[in-house]
Design a protein that fits this description.
Blueprint lengths: L2 H19 L8 H11 L6 H13 L6 H19 L9 E2 L2 E2 L1 H5 L1 H20 L6 H15 L5 H11 L6 H11 L1 H14 L4 H28 L2 H4 L5 H4 L5 H5 L1 H18 L8 H12 L3
Antiparallel strand pairs: 1-2
Helix pairs in contact: 1-4, 2-6, 3-4, 3-10, 3-16, 4-6, 4-10, 7-10, 8-9, 10-11, 11-15, 11-16, 15-16
Length: 294
């Protein structure tokens, strides 16, 4: 199976799991379920679930039910995008190539749709029946920590907001992005490894990989915001500079940012040495993250 075929297959697998767990649009109250599904099934790369599945496969031979744990990551990610786009935060009109949730359903319903996806993510993990209670608890803790305020996604978002207009320093940049984007990407790899029954050494290696690929993802995202069009990205391009965000190009410039992303890609590969060929999909994902153009 080629990498493109792997991506397409796993995306369908994750979408099917999401479809089973998110109430249908016909279920009352219908408006909230339409709003949730509108944003959740608008497309997207499903990068976080893909990382979880590939990590689980590297640790254990295709563990049953991993797509259920993986889809909790997409629920969290989509909730964060809905809230990011709100007028009180980034005030964006475009996401995944279509009008943002609040533009279609109104601000109140968009806030509630994000809240509902966040809540559902933990319900999905709590109901996992293919892993023992200890691993189930570890998965819940991992996702909660990565989504939270201390070194997690929300903490990174706070630093991002408070950093607007400030002098862009390397230290502030790293503190923002290791939390805002990197924490959930690292958790994706760790959750897959935990689901697969990783031992301490395996989990440590996966953590290092997740840190490197998470930073590479954000560097490339920042570069693409400068280089690509809104049509190519599926979201409004150039907003980082307009809002005076602290980004890698703002601190290091485009060329150096590209070099840094490549260095992170190499380090991500090196972190997986103990897994040999079992981690080939993870290496391919790291390559894709750095070499993508959208």
């Amino acid at each position: 199976m080629t990498f493109s075929e792997f991506i397409a297959t796993q995306q369908k697998r994750v979408d099917a799991a999401l479809d089973r767990r998110v109430p249908a649009e016909s279920v009352e109250p219908t408006t909230i379920h339409r709003a949730m599904r509108y944003s959740l099934f608008a497309g997207g790369k499903r990068m976080r679930p893909l990382l979880a599945i590939a990590a689980a496969d590297a640790v254990s031979d295709a563990p049953a039910g991993i797509e259920s744990a993986a889809c909790s990551l997409e629920l969290i990610h989509t909730y964060s995008l809905i809230h990011d786009d709100l007028p009180a935060l980034d005030n964006d009109d475009l996401r995944r190539g279509r009008p943002t949730c609040h533009k279609v359903f109104g601000e109140a319903m968009a806030i509630l749709a994000g809240d509902a996806l966040l809540t559902l993510a933990f319900e999905v993990l709590a109901k996992l029946d293919c892993v023992d209670p200890e691993r189930r608890s570890a998965l819940v803790a991992e996702l909660a920590t990565a989504s939270g305020t201390v070194g997690g996604m929300i903490g990174g978002q706070v630093c991002d907001i408070e950093g607007e207009g400030k002098f862009a320093t390397a230290a502030l940049l790293e503190s923002i992005h290791r939390a805002k984007t990197g924490a959930l990407l690292k958790a994706s790899v760790r959750m897959g490894a935990i689901y697969g029954g990783a031992d301490a050494a395996q989990l440590d290696a996966m953590t290092k990989f997740g840190e490197h690929v998470g930073l590479a993802f954000q560097i490339v995202d920042d570069v693409l915001d400068v280089e690509q069009s809104s049509e190519a990205l599926g979201k409004t391009a150039g907003k980082d500079a307009k809002q005076q965000k602290i980004t890698f190009p703002a601190v290091y410039g485009i060329e150096r940012s590209r070099e840094m992303a490549e260095q992170e890609r190499i380090q991500a590969h090196l972190a997986l040495q103990m897994f040999d060929d079992r981690a080939e999909r993870l290496r391919e994902i790291a390559d894709y993250v750095v070499r993508r153009n959208a």
